[in-house]
Amino acid sequence: MQLIDLSREIYHKMPRLVNHPSIVVTEYSNHDEVREADGYKFSSATLNLSLGDHAGTHVDAPCHFDSSSEALSIDQMPLDNFFTEAICLDLSFKPLKSDISIEDLENAVEKADVEIKPKDMVLLHMDFYNRCFGTPGYLTDFPGLTKESATWLGAKGINMFGVEAVSPGRPGRNNFEVHHVCRDMGFTHVEGLVNLEKLVGKGRFRFIGFPIKIQGGTGAPIRAVAWLEE
């Protein structure tokens, strides 16, 4: 068994979309503070976190993009949605700021020699993190799905798809339309993944990414992991 970490670290002032809260990590206590009970001394350190429910590597809950009363919050989503079979498609050839077409997805599936099955997690490797992390373009320059290519994925009956970028579609109308495809077809997506290049050509594997159980959450950070059988 091999486990591959697909999650970003959460740290102070990490990049996030401007319409989401800043991520603030501060020291609450350190080991200079010592407590004592019945003559036993103990020192511990604690951090204070202030962050939104879409911080770092995270999954969107249906209620993020669906205003209906039936849309599930993150704490209501079935846990088996987050422990699924998965595949990774190589889209690293896509230029920055480009749209991912149905033809791109079809060619990537053929190249990977895999089949997208119902309930799958489909990971889309764009080599975006390696190309743009640490630059201003990290928040804007990613390739992204369109309404048509997201619909193509949804028609396969998938549970989720996952991207390295901060959004599944290019900034603006495309991104809104991709979210609405998720709403209308009953699937969702994970954003902010890393290390997807390690999954290219690996065939089928397991994806694990349980969300923090936030009451009423519109999303939640996850510890995303790929489980490969050796």
Structure description:
By secondary structure, the protein is an alpha/beta fold. The protein has a single domain (58-228), classed as Glucose Oxidase, domain 1. The protein is 18% helix and 27% strand. The chain has 5 helices and 15 strands. It has helices at 62-65, 102-112, 128-132, 147-154, 173-185, and strands spanning 2-5, 24-29, 34-37, 40-43, 46-50, 58-60, 83-90, 99-100, 121-125, 144-145, 160-162, 188-191, 205-208, 219-221, 225-228. The strands form 4 sheets. It has a 9-stranded mixed sheet with strand order 1-15-13-7-9-11-12-6-14. It has a two-stranded antiparallel sheet with strand order 2-5. It has a two-stranded antiparallel sheet with strand order 3-4. It is globular. It starts with a strand and ends with a strand. The model has no long low-confidence stretch (mean pLDDT 96).
Write the layout of secondary structure elements.
Blueprint: E1 2-5, E2 24-29, E3 34-37, E4 40-43, E5 46-50, E6 58-60, H1 62-65, E7 83-90, E8 99-100, H2 102-112, E9 121-125, H3 128-132, E10 144-145, H4 147-154, E11 160-162, H5 173-185, E12 188-191, E13 205-208, E14 219-221, E15 225-228
Parallel strand pairs: 7-9, 8-10, 9-11, 11-12
Antiparallel strand pairs: 1-15, 2-5, 3-4, 6-12, 6-14, 7-13, 13-15
Helix pairs in contact: 4-5
